Amino acid sequence: MSIPQTQAAAQLQTDFLSASDAARLVMRTGITQVLRLMSEAIEADFMRWQDFDKSARTAAHSASGVIELMPVADAQDYAFKYVNGHPHNPQLGLPTVMAFGALADVATGMPRFVSELTLTTALRTAATSAMAAKHLARKDSRSMALIGNGSQSEFQALAFMELLDVRELRLFDIDPAASQKLLRNLQPFLAQFGASVSIAASAADAVKDADIVTTATADKTRATIIHAPLLQPGMHLNAVGGDCPGKTELAAAVLHRASVFVEYEPQTRMEGELQQMPADFAVTELWRVLQKQAPGRTSAEEITLFDSVGFALEDYSALRTMHRLARQAGLLSQIELIPSLPDPKDLFALLMQSHRAQVIQLSGRQTA
Ligand SMILES: NC(=O)c1ccc[n+]([C@@H]2O[C@H](COP(=O)([O-])OP(=O)(O)OC[C@H]3O[C@@H](n4cnc5c(N)ncnc54)[C@H](O)[C@@H]3O)[C@@H](O)[C@H]2O)c1
């Protein structure tokens, strides 16, 4: 049975969300609402962890950074993200992290949605951090040190204020202008949350007496932002910046003092703070805590650590959330990514069509 041409052409349209339309969507929906929806979607998808075909991302390393491909699929949807990490990019006028990605139908392989994922990555990373902290941090956590005040930092701050009731933020960055930028960008939200923000003189000052410590620094090195003597009983650490071989933020002694939780163990062993530890160092995958197969925090004194590296499943959840919201808001455009063919076996006809169109255009110009 042949499919009518108009129906076939419609089936071949791919939805597209640009960076500026993604920004419009977030502002229209409300950033804290987007963080909440994304966090709920990520949690729901971690709850059905077994449904997904998972793998560690593939990475192409260079002296200046890394480019990674992150695929994941369930029975209906295939998702992938292209993402880089180049810590010196800001000096070249480019962000450290840039990303785009797609959702495709597993049944046919047809790409349904192509999207910017730079803004979306910051949202999904913060949503994941807050979701993990909801299960691991002490319920009475109200203060957070935020070390590394670059692109990810506003999203982290807002997610923890919205989803964990954090009400006191202490910022530190080796670049004072980055902390000033974060302070400025958070101002409009402080009254809404009844929160306060201050800039600390050092990482140690920021961490002192903090309930939660978020590290989101970028440096392609084995950095030690947090040393074990800075730890206090009951702290939760949200280590976001160490996400690639040779790039860490915590002293190994910090991991020895903490209960360590990860997204997907095979990937975190290579990329996370965990790369510093022996192969048999015990960790718990977060989905096991969510599915009540493993305990999360077991006492008010325990130190918990979420060794975040970013996993493809979070991008799957984020892509599906943004696609749904953008469709509802009428912010999707359509792109012709896949050729529309009257006979799907005659790809060559596409060239002939294009050739005929050029000839008609040319003869039109000559007679004009
Ligand atoms: N885990 C994840 O899922 C995930 C997702 C996105 C980004 N990341 C990582 O998070 C980090 C931050 O990303 P970004 O987009 O905000 O980068 P960015 O370059 O915009 O900001 C990084 C900030 O860290 C600061 N910094 C560097 N070394 C520091 C130090 N020793 N002490 C204090 N501050 C320091 C820099 O001055 C800069 O302001 C990167 O390493 C990135 O790869 C992780």
Secondary structure blueprint with pairings:
Elements: H1 5-11, E1 14-17, H2 19-29, H3 31-47, E2 58-61, E3 66-73, E4 77-85, E5 99-105, E6 111-116, H4 118-136, E7 143-147, H5 153-164, E8 168-172, H6 176-193, E9 196-199, H7 203-207, E10 212-215, E11 222-226, E12 236-239, E13 248-250, H8 252-257, E14 259-262, H9 265-271, E15 284-285, H10 286-290, E16 304-307, H11 312-329, E17 333-335, H12 348-367
Parallel strand pairs: 1-6, 7-8, 7-10, 8-9, 10-12, 11-13, 12-16, 14-15, 14-16
Antiparallel strand pairs: 1-17, 2-3, 3-4, 4-5, 5-6
Helix pairs in contact: 2-11, 3-4, 3-5, 3-11, 4-5, 4-11, 5-6
Bound molecules: nicotinamide-adenine-dinucleotide.
Task: Write a structural description.
The structure is a single chain. The protein is built from 12 helices and 17 strands. The longest helix has 20 residues. The structure holds nicotinamide-adenine-dinucleotide. The site of nicotinamide-adenine-dinucleotide has 31 residues, from helix 4 and strand 11.
Summarize the structure.
The protein is 39% helix and 22% strand.
- Shape type: elongated
Which bin fits the share of residues in helices?
A: 25-40%
Number of strands: 17
Largest pleated sheet: 8 strands, parallel
CATH architectural grouping of the largest domain: 3-Layer(aba) Sandwich
Q: What number is the mean pLDDT?
A: 95
Quaternary structure classification: single chain
Rg over CA atoms? 23 Å
Counted by DSSP, the helix tally is 12
- Could you say what the CATH topology of the largest domain is called? Rossmann fold
> What ligand species are in this complex?
nicotinamide-adenine-dinucleotide
Lateral strand order in the biggest sheet: 9-8-7-10-12-16-14-15
User: Given this structure, which CATH class of the largest domain is correct?
Assistant: Alpha Beta
Sequence stretches where pLDDT stays below 50 over 5 or more residues? none
Count of spatially separate domains: 2
Tell me what portion of residues adopts beta-strand conformation: 15-25%
What is the H/E order?
HEHHEEEEEHEHEHEHEEEEHEHEHEHEH
| End-to-end C-alpha gap | 44 Å
By CATH, the superfamily of the largest domain comes out as NAD(P)-binding Rossmann-like Domain
